[in-house]
Every structure is written in structure tokens, then in C-alpha cells.
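User: Can you help me understand a structure? I only have the sequence.
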Amino acid sequence: MSATPRPPRRTARPRVLVLRALGLGDLLTAVPALRALRRHLPGHELVLAAPERLAGAAAATGVLDRLLPAEAPGRAVPTTLAWPGPGPDLAVDLHGNGPPSHLLLQRLRPGRLLAYAHPGTPGVPGPVWREDEHERDRWCRLLTWYGIPADPADLSIPVPATPSPAPGAVVVHPGADAAARCWPAERFAAVARALRAQGHRVVVTAGAGETALAGCVAARAGLPPDHVVGGTADVPFDRLAALVAGARCVVVGDTGLAHLATALGTPSVVLFGPVSPRLWGPPPDPRHHVLWHPGDDPSPRPGDAHGRMPDERLLRITVDEVLAAVRNLPEPLPARTPARHGTAAPPPVNVPARR
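Assistant: Let's start by predicting it. Here is the structure, written out as C-alpha cells:
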């Protein structure tokens, strides 16, 4: 009698770990690269090492399976990653360029590491880093060098199923994570006041810790307190994305909400200061109007993006310029159905419980 054949042993899905432990704008500029990885490796588990507060945004991309909580102060590289079990089959460094992030991933013993070349880690092959390169282009070029086609224009995320708390409003976002990129509150208030006088519904948004700033802008603009969204804590991502997706337009500095408007196709006016829009700006599109006054300095980073005072280039932008830019924006596209990249909203990204 012949032996009964055993069923094939079930093996776990191969795993890809992507390091990008930064902010919302950083995650959204990495969407084209993340989508390229998903297309190239459809059977792999795609894990993003990023701050836990980005779990909602990570889920909204529709391409990630799991978020591994990881963060460090500012834009530093985390010191450790709580990666369980054997090393990932593939690790991808989308965090930056240099030994700290390379070595962090190498300590996990991945089957392969994709990263930019650096003299401090000569064992890591990769393309040459370019300082003057848009962030979306940078990470797509990295993957393309390794044989993974990536399109920087593939940056949209699905429209959320959550209804907008203020349909058709102009969203004014005065905050940023550095004072150098914060246009003065009184100017944001003047813009909001003028738009309200023109008949627009105006909403002021605030990230965690920005209650006082948003309240100041709203009060100076004559807006009631309930026209401020957020402040004490980050606005839940599905609600924030719904607000932006349903907005008439967004007026914002060089920060995460600008990238969210780009990803959702919402018209925007984006104010740039210490860093050129050719590094972090929206793609060429009449829906997005960039204001930027570099003066005689043609360099991509003429100022300190993390400075403690508003950058001089940002201060050259006037209230009248912003109002004119809003007037010249096209109307938003017709209402879109949720989850443009599928028939249902993206599933939540699994975030391991803290021990």
C-alpha cells in the first residue's frame, strides 16, 4: 500500500520591511514607491516602520499590511526596531541616506537591503544620492535602479468613506512642525477673514498642540470656535482626509496637509519658504498653486527648514497673493466615490499591541 501523500507544508508569506519613520508628508511622498513595491511583490507582506500615529494614513494608502511602530525625535533614525522573528526577506530604506538607517536595517539580517550608496556603508550597493531631487522622484529612482519600476506620478490615495464634516469649505492650515515654515498667524487670519467675507465657509485645522495657533487665527478671522478642527490631538485621519477630499481648496504651508491635498486631488495654495518646491512641492497641475519667492538664491535649500523663526522667503508672500491664488484655482473635480483603487475602503493596517 502506498503511503498517503502529505499536504505541502504551509509557509508564511515573505516579508518586506520599509523604513520611513517620519511624518505624514513623508509617508504620502513615499506612496508611489510603496505602490511600486506592492505591484512588484504582490504575495509579500508589506510592513512599514513608522510612527504609530500614522496608522490611519498608512491604511489609507491601500497598499500596506502592517505598521511597525517606530520613531525618533525630529527626523532622526530610530535606535531599534521591534521586528519579530527571522529577518525580513527584503528591507527597503526610504528614511534617508547614511549609516544610521542602513545599519539599523542590517542588524535585522534581511535577505536583501535596498538603499542608496554611502561611503560609510560600502557593503550596501545602490545608486548615488542626489541633493537636488524631489522626494517622490528620489525613492522611485531608488527602486527603479534595483529593477522595480516606479512612477512618481502614482501618488493618489483613495477617497475616504467618512463624510466630510464641512463639505465645500476652504480649509486653512496655519501650522507646521517648524517655525521656519509657518506663515504668520495674522496673515492666515486676514486670508480667512477675506474669504469668509466673499461667502466661503472657512475651517481652520490644527495638529496636536496647535490649539492656541488655530484659535488665534479663527478669532482674528471672526470665525466661531466650532470652525476649528483639531488642536488638542491629531484629527483622526479618516476625518481629516474626508475634510480635505470634500474641500473647495486648502491654503497651507509646506507641511503634511499640503501633501494630503495633492494625494486626494483637492485644489491647494501652498506657501513655501526655506525649501524649494522643486524638492517637496506638488506636481505640475492647475489644481495646485505654489507661492515661492527665493530671491537671488537659486539653491534648493536656501534657508533652514527647521529654524525657529519664519523664513524670509515665506515672509515675502503677501495676503493679496494668496487670495488671488485662491480665486484662480479651478473648481474641485466632481465628487468621487470612496476607495478609487478598489471597490471597498482599504482594510485597516494592523498595528501590533504595545507590550
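Now, to help you interpret it: The two ends are 52 Å apart (CA to CA). The first strand starts at residue 15 and ends at 19. Let me know which part you'd like to focus on.
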